[in-house]
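Weekly puzzle thread! Below is a chain. First person to post its structure in token form gets bragging rights.
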Amino acid sequence: MHRVAVIAVPPATTFDLSIPELVLGEMTVDGRPGYDVRICTADPGPVATGGSLHVTVTHGLEIVEDADTVIVTGTGARDDVDPRVLRALRRAAETGRRVASICTGAFVLARAGLLAGRSATTYWARSEEFRRRFPSVDLRPDVLYVEDGNIWTSAGLSAGIDLCLHMVRGDYGAAAANAVARLVVAAPVRPGGQAQFIASPLPPETGLSLAATRAWALERLHEPLTRADLAAHARTSVRTLTRRFHAETGHSPLQWLLHQRVEQARELLESTDLPMGQVAQLSGLVTTDSLRQHISHRTGLTPTAYRAAFTRGTTAGAPDVLHQSMQNR
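Winning reply:
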């Protein structure tokens, strides 16, 4: 079981504090928990929060010593961080363990000296403050999360869910991560480079959301879908579809389709032993050349190298794989 220590730094953000246990705690392997998630703090007992909720933490920092992953969640602390927390984080990083932050937890990692010369992100509304305080950090304020070696950081609040799903994907594979996403009613694993927020407002709740069309498309990624096909399903014009699609997802319809197809291909590479040609067809990338181009662009690895590095098991024939893969989405 993968051991995770979540450090609460007062005043703690309660939403962020709940994310690792809620997401990672849903991961199971053959009916057994995939993660042992425990929350700790420098002084066990009541922990101040930024709101009216009261939190009591029973574990001290000693659990960090045995953790495989250490996560610092959002906090209102900017300058006054307990030196014991900083020492625990440095020891964890020095021994090669994965150290991560959610939201303004990045300030704590930076105070510990773990982000100097690295790429990182934090909550976009605190990015200017972060940049002033820590100019040696390559801050990327417009992305969901950043993985730089064994130091991972995420943007604010719900981006912590994306970070934890990314962890599940790296530890247990794409199929497991998507299964957890369904259990916690979250979007499938999103790329870290996706924008933190969309400047365009979401459409009003008047039944015009394209969620049903996106769900329909996810079941047909292996088909040659066009913007006209999506518009026909949504019963709107291509122009309106494109505008609303971007407002809801931050991507054009074809960009969104391509991302989903690449994700489908990655899942098939990880969880099946299908030939590359079938992976390309089932994911809608059509040809092995296209599969190679997009997998290499997204991961830096050829499909063969990606499968060798991330395979988690095999599945039987293509019809069953297609059915299960589509059901999983």
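Puzzle host: Confirmed. Bonus trivia for everyone else. The chain has a mean pLDDT of 86.
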